Structure formats: C-alpha cells, structure tokens
Amino acid sequence: MARAESTRTPTRIQREKTEAILAAALDIFAAEGFRGATLDQIAEAAGLSKPNLLYYFDSKEAIHQTLLERLLDTWLNPLRQIDPAGDPLKELGAYIQRKLEMSRDMPRESRLFANEILRGAPHMSPATMAALKALVDEKVAIINGWAKAGRIEALDPYHLIFSIWATTQHYADFEVQVRGILGPSEDGHHHDASAFLSRLYTRGLTPG
Q1: pTM for the whole thing?
Q2: Environment class of residue 183 by beta-carbon count within 10 Å: exposed (0-12), middle (13-18) or buried (19+)?
Q3: What are phi and psi of 46, to 5 degrees?
Q4: Quick one: 67-205 is in which CATH superfamily?
C-alpha cells in the first residue's frame, strides 16, 4: 500500500517525497518495464534510500498500482470529452487530436499503460476495468446513434475506438521505431501524423 498517501493529513514533505517517488518510478517503469524495474533503481532516481522509500510505499507493486490508478483517469479524459450533441466528424477528429497530443506529451505514461496491458493487467482492479468498459460502452452508443442517423459511416464503433488507440498511441509506444525509420523530429512527427490521421478518419467516416 501507499503508506504516506493513507495518512489522513500528510505533511508537505510527505507529499513531496511521494511525488518524487512516483515521478522516478514512472521513468524507471517506462524504460525497464515492471519486471525490470527495482526498488533500488526507483529509490536512487528519487534521491532516497531504499528504507526511506519503503516508508512511503511498501512494495514495487504498490508504486506501480498508484501510478496506474492516477494514469487511467487522465487517460480516459479525451474519450469522456466526446459530446453527443456535437458534430460527429468534428467530435471524433478532436478525440484523435487529443490522443495524439497525449502520445506526444505523455510518452512514459503511454508505455507504462501499454506494458501493463501486455502483461495481462495484473495491477488493474476489476472495478477499474469495469469503469473503462462502461465509458467505452457509453461512447459506442453515441457513435451508433450517429451512424443510425446517417451522420457518419456505419462502422463497428468498438473497432473504431480500438483503431484510434492503436494509431495514436503508436507514436509513443513505438517511438524508437518511428524515429529509426523517419529520423529525428522536434515534435516526434506528430504534425505529420495529425494530418494523415485526420484525413484517413474523415474520409473513412464521411457517409458515402
């Protein structure tokens, strides 16, 4: 468990140390994966001794789970913002852009989440997965409504969402591959990716 965070009124120093541990752990987990990361590495990166770190978190699992719980709420915000009253193509286009911006601005978080899913999501609780499914189901109903009204092409909305996740998060999760093929870029090639994906999805979703 996260000991310091369970304190009713954590001190400023406790809050700062907790955040330092989580920031260091994010770097280590993103680079090494859960199995490759160690408490010693996290403690060193946070500027703490291992016993001091264990005052705040009693295990590597506790740190990882805290990061995931914080991340998932942030990760779902772009999907939450899809407005059923808006123009379908604009709403879905804006969602794609928000996901690309997260890929550009939060690559470590993206890799942390991807690694957790690839491992079978052992640190994501059933309640967390249920919340994810409920939100996706809610947005699928909206997309289905748009399709039935003839406002967008009738496509399987679940696979549409999966494809958006895959194409946008690719630029964070496979950053090394993108850079190796396309060369270095100040924005990680996100401007070009944005133009391409906007055109791809607009054409695919425009009713024929």
Answers
A1: 0.83
A2: exposed
A3: -85, -5
A4: Tetracycline Repressor, domain 2 (1.10.357.10)
